[in-house]
Amino acid sequence: MTTALSPAPATAPAPAPAPDVDPGRAPGVGGPSLAAARPDPADLDPRRALRALEHWRADGRDAARFPYRAVLAHYRAVGKNAVGAELLTALRTLRPSVPEGLLADWLPQVVDGAQGDYDSYLGSPVYASLARSGAGTEPVITALLADLVAIEAATLAGAPAGRARTRAALRALTAAAGLPGAGDPATEDGTDELVRACADAVGAARDAVPAGVLRAVELTLTPTTRSHDEQMFIRVIQIFEAVFAAVARSIGAATEAVATGRADRARELLADATRQVAGTSGVFRVLTTMPKDAFAVIRANTDGRSAVQSTAYRTIERTSPELHRTLLRGTLDQAELAPVMGELDTAWGAMKRTHWGVTMKVIGQVRGTGGTAGASYLREAADVRLFPALG
Ligand code: HEM
Predict the structure, then answer these.
(1) Which has the least CB within 10 A, 83, 217, 226, 259?
(2) Which residue of 141, 229, 308, 386 sits with most ligand 1 atoms within 8 Å of its CB, as the best mutation to test the pocket?
(3) How far apart are CA 218 and CA 35, in angstroms?
(4) Domain 226-391 - what CATH class?
(5) pTM
(6) Mean pLDDT for the chain?
(7) Is 365 exposed, middle or buried (0-12, 13-18, 19+ CB in 10 A)?
(8) pLDDT at site 126
């Protein structure tokens, strides 16, 4: 304790580092990622990335030729929270002079350090730019699921516990990308068959996704730790966030359609939003394979980065009652839209209750990284309806 007689030390003691996974364990569920377990030794040292940055600077700083690969290889080998001050500073000093575009969108995700929030955790600016460029939600979700399946399948040989998760991810991918083979019994057989089925699905899914989307997905995986499970967690969050953003846009557009008397258009938009929300059930099946102790490591390293900060999620809950008020004020018959609004409300409520259930299973009653009471907060939030006046 500091008193008048014991002056404060000139520098406060550094906070204790949060625990991380043991990179010596077998990679996969409950263990390290492949990048952490089997790194190129040169990637453990920041000097490769620093040298690549130096060359890039000397070479004219062309954003299109930024050495993403060298920087990401180091980040993934050691975990973002273990990246040293020298590389962080080198990346931070770039920010003010980088022109608008992918690099400017991407940098916040790698320079956020202890000030990181939910948006910098998942790479929101990159996905917001993709949406503005008209990339569409389906290709983004397909690319994220394809990457998730690839990550899981790559560790299957060493971690048989990963089979359940890999199967769940493969089912989610085949369903989202409209590929044959969802629930195909072949994937229930041995590990080799499952790995082959994953490779086929990932290849087919990626073939249908524009290169710009694949690139964005590839760059936006910067886990704070060396945990394999954190890679899955980030992909799952990014998928949900893409869904939230799409639903928020649909509700906004449906409100406009209602205001201008276009019931068919509003119905179509709300049905699409319902489909997107209902589609998250397969992604929850992947998330529930999260081991408790693996999530404890992720939690300890992501304090202050909670989805409670999600702008798109808040927009949905804030704008839905406005949609209903617009309907009540306008000329359309309420009965024309009530069923589809009710379906969206039901799907949204089911999603929130599933999230609450997963939270109970994985962390129990402890506080959230966003500072709420945790499960009890979520239990109450699950009862908040999108259209409370619907009856
Ligand atoms: C094991 C996985 C997860 C656990 C244990 C968990 C836990 C929590 C907790 C405790 C909260 C309360 C806010 C806080 O204090 O942080 C919360 C909020 C929230 N979480 Fe999760 N979460 C998990 C996965 C996810 C995923 C994958 C998403 C997808 C984006 C997500 C979306 C949300 C949202 C939108 C909120 C705000 C809810 C509201 O305010 O109504 N969570 N989560």
Answers:
(1) 259
(2) 308
(3) 14
(4) mainly alpha
(5) 0.95
(6) 92
(7) exposed
(8) 98
| Half-sphere exposure of residue 311: CA atoms within 13 angstroms, side-chain side | 10
Question: Of ligand 1's atoms, which has the minimum distance to the CA of residue 377?
Answer: 12
Q: In the chain, what is the greatest distance between 2 CA atoms, to the nearest angstrom?
A: 76
Q: How far is CA 94 from CA 45, 68, 85, 216, 277, in A?
A: 21, 13, 14, 20, 39
Tokens, residue 359: 């939270």
Crossing angle of helices 228-259 and 124-132, in 10° steps, is: 40
Q: How many CA atoms lie within 13 A of 241 on its CB side?
A: 27
Asked if the model's pLDDT at residue 159 lies above 90, the reply is: no
> What is the spatial distance between Cα 276 and Cα 175, in angstroms, rounded to a whole number?
12
d(CA 255, CA 325): 9
Nearest-CA neighbor of 95 among 77, 107, 79, 87? Answer: 107
Tokens found for residue 25: 């364990």
How far is it, in rounded angstroms, from Cα 49 to Cα 222? 15
CB 109 within 8 A of CB 223: no
- Name the CA dihedral angle for 22, 83, 46, 61, rounded to a multiple of 10 degrees: 140
- Per residue in 96-129, pLDDT (tens digit) is 889 999 999 999 999 998 789 999 999 999 999 9
Could you report the per-residue pLDDT of 199-245, keeping only the tens digit for each?
999 999 999 999 999 999 999 999 999 999 999 999 999 999 999 99
